[in-house]
Specification:
This is WDR60 protein. By secondary structure, the chain is mainly beta. Helix content is 0%, strand content 46%. 21% of the residues are buried.
């Protein structure tokens, strides 16, 4: 609810990494690991900002931020085929109006 993200190992209650205020205080409403690249995850905040984290490139800050300006995004999920090496990864965004939007991710964040 405060924009913090914690990375846990299943065998410990203490986080391996913790990023406080990663969304400048906005609540995170969805977070998902990339299906095709294990070190990348995406976070959606309550202000319709999508943050892309690539832990191999930078483990302190997101490597990119994209604002969806048209209307509020209420949730997101990722689509892709992890068993294929084509690097195709998409973000499905559900907007407040009920509209669904699919955007494809740059290859540098999608390739295995």
């Amino acid at each position: 609810s405060d924009g913090s993200i914690r990375l846990h190992q299943m065998t410990s209650e203490c986080p391996l990494m913790q990023w406080n205020d990663s969304t400048k205080g906005q609540p995170i409403i969805a977070l998902q690991w990339a299906l095709t690249r294990p070190a990348v995850f995406f976070a959606l905040d309550a202000s319709s900002n999508i943050y892309i984290w690539d832990l191999l490139e930078n483990d302190l800050l997101p490597v990119a931020k994209q604002t969806i300006p048209s209307e509020r995004v209420v949730t997101m999920t990722l689509l892709g085929e992890p068993e294929k090496a084509n690097g195709l990864l998409g973000i499905v965004l559900a907007k407040e109006s009920g509209q669904i939007d699919i955007q494809y991710v740059k290859k540098k964040w999608a390739l295995p």
